[in-house]
Amino acid sequence: MSTPETHREVPHRGLITISIMLATVMQVLDTTIANVALPSMTGDLGASRDTINWVLTSYIVSAAIMTPVTGWLSDRVGRKELFLVSVVGFVVFSMLCGVAWSLESMVAFRLMQGVFGAAIVPLSQTFLLDINPRERHGQAMAIWGAGIMVGPIIGPTLGGWLTESFNWRWVFFINLPVGIVAFIGMLIYLPSIAKRARSFDFFGFAMLSLGVGALQLMLDRGADADWFSSVEIWIELGLSLTGFWIFIVHTIMGDHPFIDPKIFLDRNFATGLVFIFVIGVILLASLALLPPMLSAIFAYPTITTGLVMAPRGVGTMISMLVVGRIVHRMDPRILVVIGLLLTAQSLYDMSGFSPQMDSWPIIVSGIVQGLGLGLVFVPLTTVAFATLDARFRTDATALFSLVRNIGSSIGISIVSALLTRNVQVNHAELSAHINPFNPNLWMAMPDAARSDPTALARVDGMVNTQALMISYVDDFKLMMLVTLAALPLIFLLRRPQYGNAGGGSAPAAHMD
Q1: How many angstroms separate the Cα of 443 from the Cα of each of 244, 450, 451, 460?
Q2: Structural contact between residues 385 and 393, judged by C-beta atoms closer than 8 angstroms
Q3: Pick the residue with more confidence: 282 or 231?
Q4: pLDDT for 350-398, tens place per residue?
Q5: Which CATH superfamily is domain 4-200+258-425+465-492 in?
Q6: So where are the chain's domains?
Q7: Can you list the positions of beta strands (E) in 12-117?
Q8: Dihedrals φ, ψ of 164, to 5°?
Q9: Quick check: 377 and 248 in contact, CB under 8 A?
């Protein structure tokens, strides 16, 4: 094991960080940047509104399946080599996505883009932990977290601007210059880590892939297939449960499992996985709700929606940069509690939204939520890896990314399904009061009470808007309760000690 002093011998730490973060932001952006371009792709690729969603599904499923194998691949081919290959492959298939000529070619290229992009985020986290001493891990995770959390926020805005100003194909072409700069920087400055012989547990990987792939497919396809009214969803649920169950049994009972079960004996890391699952639910679920809400209820165009949501990213970056400097000077668990309470407060404020308000409450609640999530993410990531043996670090970062992504997928699916259901319920309840016997209707809109078609259509539009707003408010309340429910987990975290170079220190970085 190396000591913290070993890290200070790594030259060009700043240039390495910039190169790594360029690659990370490039990959994270692609999880959301293509969403707003889907309507424009539909006509060019000869797809329907339903089938075009496979452009997103193929990427999500392939990335989820390949993320857990990052640790084995990095040991087998080398961490630096895997990172470089991942960036090259991601950029190449991004360019092919940009020149796709049919839906089939686009889905195939997006699938391969997910395969190569899966390792980028966990490897970037691993390298930042490796090249920094333990007392600087908080600052390193602040930089990494800013890219991870701000990327999805600016993705839809950037995608909308590129689509409107140029063409949807530029959503993918934009990766070329970023990828080239990141590749050159990593090729020159990234330290090489010694390879390690490691057998591959194909059965364990196959079962985990089955569980993760079927779960992601179910979550992504659920809304289109009408959830559990569809045989397809039941089959995918069965496959997912079967895959996860066999994987867990095999991991506990097997001699050389795909993921060493000792990694879960670290209490901080195991608790961190639960926390990051909750953060994934809150971060992307709220991001998935706000753009359609601003469009449907407030009639904001894409660019205006991006500007209204931008302060959320600013709040996140500010809190991360501040907390990165103080996380080692105070108990990080206190920062996590403060962050969760701020996040819950922002969601409580969002539950008071109404169709008559201006954009100011959205901006303020976004800033508060950004501050809260930033306060949670950095100390949580630092504490989760502080006591973990360094030999598990690459596998651990892969699991960390996988659990965050699964949390995001589950969160988006739940709030979207509840939104659809609650709109129907709220519309029925509100419509029940629209009748000629209601004196309030006679006072407010006598023409509607007399069954004038034009007036009734106007009333129906108002009812639709109110039903939709109430449904969004219900989702925000649910996310607030989920946030508060995560608070007791703080008692399971142990405060890390930064004065020693125990098991949590990183392996020595062997320079080229």
Answers
A1: 60, 12, 14, 17
A2: yes
A3: 231
A4: 988 888 888 899 999 989 988 888 888 788 888 888 778 877 887 888 8
A5: MFS general substrate transporter like domains (1.20.1250.20)
A6: 4-200+258-425+465-492, 201-257
A7: none
A8: -75, -35
A9: no
